[in-house]
Amino acid sequence: MLVDRNLDLDLTDPSSASRNAVAAAAAGYDRLYTAETRNDPFLPLALAAGAADVELGTNIAVAFARTPMTMAKSAHDLQALTGGRFVLGLGSQVKAHVTRRFSMPWSHPAARMREYVLALRAIWDHWETGAPLAFEGEYYTHTLSAPLFDPGPNGHGAPKVLLAAVGPLMTQVAGEVADGVLCHAFTTASYIENVTLPAVRAGQERAGRPAYGFEVGMPLLIATGLPGADLGPQVEKIRSQIAFYASTPAYLGVLEHHGWEDLHTELLALSKAKRWNDLASRVTDDVLEHFCVIAHADTLADTIRERYGRALTNVRLSVPYADDPRTWLPVIERLRKKSA
Question: CA–CA distance from 100 to each of 65, 66, 81, 93, 106 (Å)?
Answer without folding.
Answer: 11, 14, 33, 12, 10
